[in-house]
Write a structure and sequence with these properties.
Helix 4 packs antiparallel against helix 6. Strands 1-2 form a two-stranded antiparallel sheet. A hairpin with a 2-residue loop joins strand 1 and strand 2. It has a single domain, classed as Alpha-Beta Complex (Sufe protein. Chain: A). The chain has nine helices and two strands. It is 52% helix and 8% strand.
């Protein structure tokens, strides 16, 4: 990977319908129109979910629009917590030392599966806000080709000024989450490349 792209990695439509508001939809439900919901059923196969139809660029833009709509950071933190709750259940057997991300203050586990040349991720933390951060990363990167992942650093983090509103420990943890995704994509790409060598 070119150094400039690696640096980008390291530093890394919302519609509100009047009828929905009148029907008593919560803010989270309205926002989920923009970013997409996920099943809360327990999934023990990482790649069981279908690959997303929207592109990585579109997924990042949807997140930016959602955060712009929320405005203040108290509402954004609440939204992150709700978004984390929308993730599929994370089985206890996945909460192993092998799957744990080191360098995070909170406990964070991440698993991945390569299926049909695409990488699928699931992740969880014992921190509600960190789980919300993981949900954002899953929204953008799960179900993508490894090359797509490597070619699209998480620009949305800068756009929503997320890193400026995290504690140093959480910001460091976010770095390790992004780095795990990037390294997993690079490893998958290397494996695919080795298969086509004579």
């Amino acid at each position: 990977m070119a150094p400039s792209k690696e640096l980008g990695w390291l530093h890394g439509a919302l519609f509100v319908v009047t009828l929905g508001i009148r029907a008593g939809m919560t803010l989270f439900q309205l926002l989920m129109i923009g970013v997409g919901n996920r099943s809360s059923k327990q999934e023990k196969t990482v790649g069981k979910d279908a690959a997303p139809e929207e592109s990585i660029v579109q997924a990042q833009q949807a997140i930016v629009e959602s955060f712009q709509f929320l405005g203040n950071w108290m509402a954004r933190y609440e939204y992150l917590i709700d978004l984390g709750r929308s993730l599929p259940d994370f089985p206890d057997e996945w909460r192993t030392e092998t799957n744990r991300l080191h360098g995070c203050q909170a406990q964070v586990w991440m698993v991945s599966e390569l299926r049909d040349h695409k990488l699928f991720f699931q992740a969880r933390s014992d921190s509600a806000i960190v789980t919300g951060l993981l949900a954002l990363l899953m929204q953008v990167y799960s179900g993508r080709l490894p090359q797509e992942i490597l070619s699209h650093p998480p620009d949305f983090l800068r756009a929503i000024e997320l890193e400026q509103h995290l504690s140093p420990n959480r910001a460091n943890g976010l770095f390790h989450m992004m780095e795990r995704i990037r390294l997993t994509a690079q490893d998958a790409l290397d494996v695919e490349a080795s298969k086509v060598k004579p």
